[in-house]
Amino acid sequence: MNAHLEISGLGMRFGEAPVVEDFDLKLARGEFVCLIGHSGCGKSTVLSIVAGLAEATSGGVVLDGRETRGPGPDRGVVFQAPSLLPWLSAFENVKLGVDRVYPHGTPQQRRAIASHYLERVGLGDAQHRRPGQLSLGECQRVGIARAFALRPKVLLLDEPFGMLDSLTRMELQQVLLELWRSDRKTALMVTHDVDEALFLADRIALMTKGPRARVGEIVEIPFPRPRERGAVLEHPDYYRLRERLLEFLEEQDARLAAELAREARALAQGAA
Predict the structure, then answer these.
(1) Has this prediction a pTM greater than 0.85?
(2) Is the peptide bond before 211 cis (omega within 30 degrees of 0)?
(3) Which CATH superfamily hosts domain 3-72+185-271?
(4) pLDDT tens for the 272 residues of the chain, in order
């Protein structure tokens, strides 16, 4: 694979505790990859390192042939919480990033970019409202618009729909897919939702349970694009793939339980 985003030998320790170790993952240009695993396994840690918001203990990240150092506009990030400035309107929150990325654009051009992406996420009539006047789902739409408006090389999403109700979650998954389909940005998304990963991804990277978490398996997703939820659910491979993902997660639970049992026995024997 000619990788657009390459994560190689990534490791992270907090003090003496290893969280992630020898994490390797490559994404082709325009590919949508979901990273799933149990809560606390280190998924968000990996994404934070790729975003430049945390520094790895070992290994590195190469984007478009260059090693990343710190955060930058080449990586658009959508967090689980919208992280909007409450004193600014939706339009102003998006335009703030646009102004920084396109300093040589005219004021009219920068306003047009911000307005365009807010319209694309369905907030054309609400773009001058402040976050306190918007629902949580609408705030997350602003966050998605802000990330796409920067026109980054890669899109990083950290469980962006994890705080939403199931109906809003499905609506925003569709919004995300339609935006992504328009320019096919390379995308890495962290999620713990198997069905969400199956609907969105080209490939799913399954992360082992920590400590020393890494990519344990990668599953190719055969569903054709553009995708409609009903067609995905009716695809003959859907439930087979869903079962495989759930089996992997259950295997990680069993492995950790076995390791804890061995440690408990060793401590008991030592005490005796």
Answers:
(1) yes
(2) yes
(3) P-loop containing nucleotide triphosphate hydrolases (3.40.50.300)
(4) 789 999 999 999 988 888 999 999 999 999 999 999 888 888 999 999 999 999 999 999 999 999 998 899 999 999 998 889 999 999 999 999 999 999 888 999 999 999 999 999 999 999 999 999 999 999 999 999 999 999 999 999 999 998 899 999 999 999 999 999 998 999 999 998 999 999 999 999 999 987 889 999 999 999 999 999 999 999 999 999 999 999 999 888 777 666 656 666 666 667 66
User: Token pair of 158, please?
Assistant: 């950290």
**Residue 92 in tokens:** 């102003």
Residues 6+ apart with CB under 8 A from 93: 84, 85, 131, 142, 146
Nearest to 90 by CA among 127, 135, 136, 133: 127
What are the extents of the domains in the chain?
Answer: 3-72+185-271
CA 221 – CA 200 distance, rounded (Å): 9
